[in-house]
């Protein structure tokens, strides 16, 4: 026997002396991750230990020596700072919030539940892989700042995402450490009997149990489910082992735990959600469980419950290509979800239609994003261009709608400024802008005085940050070299890597092929000349992981590594292993330019480039994702134009040449053109323009406010309205929908007339009338619109706007609708008539998708 098994388990915690108890309070709330002063309270105790525990304050405190604890208890200055930090946290948690001021009285009747497969809160909680998780973490922090009544739900991965190591020839290897959750800022959620609360999820041939952990992110509780409990079989204990690991079966099990188990966990803790936000399709099974629970609680049928639930659901997609969505075969769906579907009384073949773009195509796999769209009235992409791409991908689900009216809105991503800003830039903003930029980073007024910061002072901070970053890189490389050689690294070699005085470019992201991580290597001779230019040298720092099963991505990393080691770029180019939040913070604060070169339009949003903005870095990117709407030549550079070519080789050649040209003729000359006191005036002005314009726009403060005002609160009000009065309005809406579907084929646009002349003056009024045959419907069941726009090729109407026609009278020939419109522009214009269903409690575009157009 290797080890004896326990017969009883219990938790053991370390106790601090009374004067140091506030340290435990600070450690148990991730608020410290976005406050330099609170982080310093741990770091200054023992910097080496703080780094050794990967900035985990709970393990850090547990490992402090008795002698160090004794000395801290008698350090009056430390205790004064500690008291100030404890007061700051208490004041933050109790201060008035934007949400309460904007929606007085709504908190008591509103709970928003935010579901995501990963959360990037801190490097010390390694349950994230990349952009989706980092965005989710920033979302929670902004929700806390704004005071939203929001809770979050995810999975607690026992072995997290992998740790990346490169072999001697640059091949990525993955290692999965085992984490001890009892040594993290997490609490096991217990019931009144002090026993852990468990939720059960039914798999095909067995039921598994999960426990719940809680992390506090400011005001926001994050609940994480964990299948590693004694009652489960060993194979089931490992379901929540790794993020995005395993095969299709493992993925569907994880997604059942997230969606079904996550919702059950909220109910088990007495937190019934008003609104559920599915951040990506991984959590879409929650809709089925939410309908089942509502049916059981309210004693209603599936269709009535679904009418209520879709009103209270929100779905955000981050995926710009069809291959990026999670799909499962019908057989796997029936095996895993058959019981859940049976529990809501739906025929399984009918259920499968909820997960297909073409509902009647039985050969199409079940798409989790489609299920989420079918069960949410509010759907969005994460940038304007991404929303447009998503509308194109899902056009087939709304065949009668113009593509730009497919009901997918845009809420562009942002960053949590306080998490990602460097200490040096925060200090200079505090001195010159006051504290308002911290409290409301999305308010443009708080950044308006950026030009008042003296150029030499701002440039001095930027020089210091670049120097700090070079030291960070050298320290990290030293550890990597020592690990590979199993001996002490040669310090003279380390000292030759990078130069704190020269133009530094950062490139860090997931190494998927569409992100083109090796694009800059297209012309290696030209690149080497740029790197080693005698007057305007450049250095590049790269980082990022490839998915363990992505061989092509691993080859890109290896290609870069070999070029650095063997191609003459050593000292001017560096690849940092194991990209995580710590590496990201140092990169975005230390580089001068952030490079991003995906294949357009395959970058949904991207947020890394946003993070350099408040740190005084500039962006050079393909016009994709957020940069497509953020770019202006006054504060950044665009790689190429908005045209894309089918020939990917030609596109790569074109874009790589654009990067070289920008570096040679614009970026480097501007950086090295120094005026008085060695300050590059034009460069510094670009920094100021970038911060003033983009810092407030691309912040999660703005983003989460948009979610609240456009999605969360309308969804909460609709859910509450449909749930009230014995479900009267929900039943009415359900019956109306059934009537519309039954009668819609008889709705026709008849005779259409207008008062327009062949040639009309700008500003002229035109009356449009349409006779509409409604069949078994009433005029109150429909909205009749004139769709007006410019006439393009093939008689297409472009740049359209809608004019609603009012009902005038019933006639023997049908119902007459009429309206008056102005002609505000010159040119060749026209219109057509359409009829849409209309009901105050039905989100028509997402729920019905029916339109009757005037015959051509």
Describe the structure.
It is a single chain. The protein is an alpha/beta fold and 856 residues long. The protein folds into 4 domains: 18-94, no CATH class; 106-413, Rossmann fold (3-Layer(aba) Sandwich), CATH 3.40.50.2000; 455-673, Glycogen Phosphorylase B (Rossmann fold), CATH 3.40.50; 745-853, Immunoglobulin-like. It is 40% helix and 18% strand. It has 31 helices and 27 strands. Strands 1, 2, 5, 6, 7, 8, 9, 10, 13 and 14 form a 10-stranded mixed sheet that branches. Helix 26 (627-630) links the parallel strand 19 and strand 20 (636-639). Helix 1 (21-27) packs across helix 6, helix 12 (302-311) crosses helix 30 and helix 20 (455-485) packs antiparallel against helix 24. The longest helix is centred in the middle third of the chain and has 31 residues, at 455-485. The termini are far apart. The mean pLDDT is 94.
């Amino acid at each position: 026997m290797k080890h004896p098994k326990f017969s009883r388990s219990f938790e053991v915690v370390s106790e601090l002396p009374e004067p140091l108890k506030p340290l435990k309070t600070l450690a148990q709330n991730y608020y410290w991750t976005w406050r330099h002063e609170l982080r310093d309270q741990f770091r200054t105790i023992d910097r080496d230990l703080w780094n050794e525990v990967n900035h985990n304050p709970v393990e850090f405190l547990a490992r402090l020596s008795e002698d160090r604890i004794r000395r801290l208890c008698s350090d009056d200055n430390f205790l004064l700072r500690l008291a100030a930090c404890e007061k700051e946290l208490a004041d933050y948690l109790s201060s008035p919030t934007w949400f309460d001021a904007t929606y007085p009285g709504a908190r008591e009747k509103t709970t928003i539940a935010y579901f995501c497969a990963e959360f990037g809160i801190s490097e010390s909680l390694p349950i994230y892989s990349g952009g989706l998780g980092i965005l989710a973490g920033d979302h929670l922090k902004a929700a806390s700042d704004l005071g939203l009544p929001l809770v979050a739900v995810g999975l607690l991965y026992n072995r997290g995402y992998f740790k990346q190591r490169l072999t001697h020839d640059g091949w990525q290897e993955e290692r999965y450490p085992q984490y001890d959750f009892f040594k993290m800022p997490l609490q096991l959620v217990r019931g009144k009997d002090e026993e852990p609360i468990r939720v059960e999820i039914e798999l095909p041939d067995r039921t598994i149990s999960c426990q719940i952990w809680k992390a506090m992110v400011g005001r926001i509780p994050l609940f994480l489910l964990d299948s590693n409990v004694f009652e489960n079989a060993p194979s089931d204990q490992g379901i929540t082992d790794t993020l995005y690991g395993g095969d299709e079966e493992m993925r569907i099990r994880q997604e059942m735990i997230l969606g079904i188990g996550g919702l059950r966990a909220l109910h088990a803790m007495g937190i019934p959600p008003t609104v559920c936000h599915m951040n990506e399709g991984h959590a879409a099974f929650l809709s089925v469980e939410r309908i089942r629970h509502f049916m059981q609680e309210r004693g209603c049928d599936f269709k009535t419950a679904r009418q209520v639930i879709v009103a209270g659901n929100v779905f955000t997609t981050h995926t710009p290509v069809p291959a990026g969505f999670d799909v499962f075969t019908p057989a796997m769906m029936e095996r895993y979800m058959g019981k859940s579907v049976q529990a809501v009384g739906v025929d399984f073949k009918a259920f499968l239609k909820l997960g297909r773009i073409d509902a009647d195509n039985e050969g199409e796999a079940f798409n989790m994003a489609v299920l989420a769209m079918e069960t949410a009235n509010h759907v969005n992409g994460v940038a304007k261009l991404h929303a447009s791409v998503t509308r194109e991908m899902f056009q087939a689900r709304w065949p009668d709608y113009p593509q730009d009216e497919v009901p997918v809105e845009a809420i562009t991503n942002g960053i949590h400024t306080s998490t990602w800003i460097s200490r040096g830039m925060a200090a200079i903003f505090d001195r010159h802008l006051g504290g308002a930029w911290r409290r409301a980073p999305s308010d443009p007024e708080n950044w308006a005085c950026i030009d008042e910061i003296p150029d030499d002072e701002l440039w001095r901070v930027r020089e210091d940050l670049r120097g700090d970053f070079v030291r960070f890189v050298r320290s990290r490389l030293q550890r990597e070299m020592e690990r590979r050689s199993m001996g002490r690294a040669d310090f003279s070699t380390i000292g030759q890597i990078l130069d704190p005085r020269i133009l530094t470019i950062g490139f860090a992201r997931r190494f998927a092929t569409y992100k083109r991580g090796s694009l800059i290597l297209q012309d290696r001779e030209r690149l080497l000349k740029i790197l080693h230019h005698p007057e305007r040298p450049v250095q590049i720092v790269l980082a990022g992981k490839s998915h363990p099963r992505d061989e092509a991505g691993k080859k890109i990393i290896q290609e870069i590594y070999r070029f650095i080691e063997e191609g003459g770029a050593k000292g001017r180019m560096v690849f940092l292993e194991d990209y995580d939040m710590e590496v990201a913070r140092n990169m975005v604060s230390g580089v001068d330019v952030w490079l991003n070169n995906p294949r357009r339009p395959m970058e949904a949003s991207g947020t890394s480039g946003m993070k350099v903005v408040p740190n005084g870095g500039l962006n050079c990117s393909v016009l994709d994702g957020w940069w497509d709407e953020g770019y202006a030549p006054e504060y950044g550079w665009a790689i190429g134009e908005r045209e894309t070519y089918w020939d990917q080789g030609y596109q790569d050649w074109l874009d790589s040449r654009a990067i070289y040209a920008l570096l040679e003729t614009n970026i480097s000359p501007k950086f090295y053109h120094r005026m008085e006191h060695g300050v590059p005036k034009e460069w510094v002005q670009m920094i100021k323009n970038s911060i003033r314009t983009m810092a407030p726009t691309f912040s999660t403060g703005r983003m989460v406010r948009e979610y609240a005002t456009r999605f969360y609160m309308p969804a909460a009000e609709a859910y509450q309205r449909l749930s009230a009065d014995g479900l009267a309005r929900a039943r009415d809406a359900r019956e109306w929908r059934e009537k519309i579907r039954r009668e819609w084929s008889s709705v026709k646009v008849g005779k259409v007339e207008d008062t327009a002349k062949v040639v009309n003056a700008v500003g002229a009024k035109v009356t449009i009338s349409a006779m509409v045959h409604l069949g078994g419907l009433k005029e109150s069941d429909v909205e009749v619109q004139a769709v007006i726009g410019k006439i393009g090729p093939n008689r297409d109407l472009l740049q359209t706007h809608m004019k609603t026609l009012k009902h005038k009278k019933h006639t023997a020939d049908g119902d007459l609708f009429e309206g008056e419109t102005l002609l505000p522009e010159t040119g060749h214009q026209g219109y057509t008539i359409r009829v849409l269903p209309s009901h105050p409690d039905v989100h028509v575009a997402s729920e019905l998708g029916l339109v009757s157009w005037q015959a051509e």
